[in-house]
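Quick one:
INPUT:
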């Protein structure tokens, strides 16, 4: 919504209503004809604004009714009050929903992203976090010959470890269906993180929103914990 435009329209209409009220002689029904015409021209737009803010506000606006300009002015003032407090309502009346605290993400993620985040470079923050996962995974496996999705694929492969090809195994009883599911999920999550998060972060040119970047850091944090808590099988 263009709040500034809406505010200007409502203030202008309210002033016009007041001017028309004052132009009406005592005991008379009609005031200045020129102002009356201006009210009719402004009324449709003002009604649309009122309906957008609160449909009930527009129902009572009818310039042709007795004292219609006074009622219309009162409704416009109510709408101006809504506009003035919309941001306050959003904050004060928001439901108590859980929120993510970025500095509680896995250290691999937040330590890498923090500097970029503080300077509002959110896409770069996500890219740095994904690069951190890559570097830590390489270090944990002792492999610098492969990176990104390839190192994840090798790390969580269901193939036994080979010389020069260690594997990562998630924590838990390897015979448990739940552990086996987490093992498969770690591989799929890792590949998805690099394909759907790391690659766009590296190659997009537009900046990302803070919320979008925060969601993606959360995904990377889950992956980082899986890798960090997995054991190396050689």
């Amino acid at each position: 919504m263009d709040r500034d435009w809406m505010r200007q329209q409502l203030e202008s209409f309210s002033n016009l209503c007041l001017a028309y009220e004052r132009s009406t002689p005592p005991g008379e029904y009609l005031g200045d004809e020129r102002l009356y015409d201006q009210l009719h021209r402004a009324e449709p737009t003002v009604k649309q604004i009122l309906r957008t803010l609160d449909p009930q506000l527009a129902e009572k606006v009818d310039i042709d009714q007795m004292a219609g300009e006074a009622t219309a002015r009162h409704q416009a003032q109510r709408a101006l009050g809504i506009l003035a407090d919309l941001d306050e309502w959003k904050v004060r009346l928001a439901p108590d929903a859980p929120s993510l605290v970025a500095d509680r993400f896995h250290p691999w993620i937040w330590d890498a992203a923090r500097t970029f985040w503080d300077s509002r470079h959110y896409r770069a923050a996500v890219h740095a976090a994904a690069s951190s996962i890559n570097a830590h995974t390489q270090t944990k496996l002792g492999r610098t010959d492969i990176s990104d999705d390839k190192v994840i694929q090798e790390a969580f492969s269901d193939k036994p470890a080979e010389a020069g090809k260690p594997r990562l195994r998630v924590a838990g009883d390897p015979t448990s269906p739940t552990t086996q599911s987490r093992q498969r999920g770690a591989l799929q999550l890792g590949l998805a993180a690099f394909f759907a998060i790391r690659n766009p972060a590296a190659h997009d040119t537009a900046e990302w929103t803070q919320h979008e970047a925060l969601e993606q850091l959360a995904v990377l944090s889950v992956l980082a914990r899986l890798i960090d808590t997995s054991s190396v099988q050689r």
